[in-house]
Amino acid sequence: MNAMLPLLRLRAREVVRTWRIWVLPVVLLFLAASGPLIARFTNEILAGALGGGELTALALPEPTAADAAARWITDLSQLAVFVVVIMAAGAINTEVRSGVASLLLVKPASRAAYVVSHAVVLVGFVAVAAFVGALVSWGVTGLVFGSAGDGTGGDGAGASTLGAVLGATGLWVVLATVLITVSLLASATFDAMAAAAGIGVGTFFLLALAGVAPRLAEFTPAGLLPAAMAVATGTPPDASAIWWPVATGLGLCVVLVVAAVVVFRRRELR
């Protein structure tokens, strides 16, 4: 693939000089810092809203550090997913409409390198931002819940070990990679960014629904989110229930990137 290194440098500069460099990191840092606080004080918030008597009747368990870790993965799978999909959904079609793609491809740069460079930089950027956020979440959790304890009460870090939080975040990054490559394929296919984003978001909800089925969750990328949640809370599933979703997810990403290259090669540029 011709001009891969120059394209990678160009994509990296695009991240640094556009809204991407601050939107995703700010969102993730906010979620990482606020999640443990919300988990820790959920009961107090409910007590203020419902009244002490009603809260006692509910018999809510004491919050633990595992709850904060679970909230981090939940937050990643909500607002952060939409930011990731939007970044990828407008990556190719925006440059095609503006004529930037035509200029880049006469350097010369192959269309395969053009697509792959988008995928590599987007995945790398999302991964770095997610792992930094995971470190912040773990650190804030330690401050809020305390670093000593067994995780069975409100004062222990327990299941929220650094390895658990990073491992769960890694599984989410694989899921994000699937969504990025789906959105890139859609971006290479459709001129409208909204259409590409809709496909990316629809894929996420489809995987989330499929993850409810045990057999699909065990052997397909649909199991990435349940596995991430289990790892974060210190109750990891069998190794096969982790590695099968990872392997099939990464395999699907390769197929999607190849499909995006094929589609983009057939696309007329302005």
UniProtKB/TrEMBL annotation:
<feature type="transmembrane region" description="Helical">
    <location>
        <begin position="192"/>
        <end position="213"/>
    </location>
</feature>
<feature type="transmembrane region" description="Helical">
    <location>
        <begin position="242"/>
        <end position="264"/>
    </location>
</feature>
<keyword id="KW-0472">Membrane</keyword>
<feature type="transmembrane region" description="Helical">
    <location>
        <begin position="160"/>
        <end position="185"/>
    </location>
</feature>
<protein>
    <submittedName>
        <fullName>ABC transporter permease subunit</fullName>
    </submittedName>
</protein>
<feature type="transmembrane region" description="Helical">
    <location>
        <begin position="21"/>
        <end position="39"/>
    </location>
</feature>
<feature type="transmembrane region" description="Helical">
    <location>
        <begin position="72"/>
        <end position="92"/>
    </location>
</feature>
<feature type="transmembrane region" description="Helical">
    <location>
        <begin position="113"/>
        <end position="140"/>
    </location>
</feature>
<keyword id="KW-0812">Transmembrane</keyword>
<keyword id="KW-1133">Transmembrane helix</keyword>
<dbReference type="Pfam" id="PF12679">
    <property type="entry name" value="ABC2_membrane_2"/>
</dbReference>
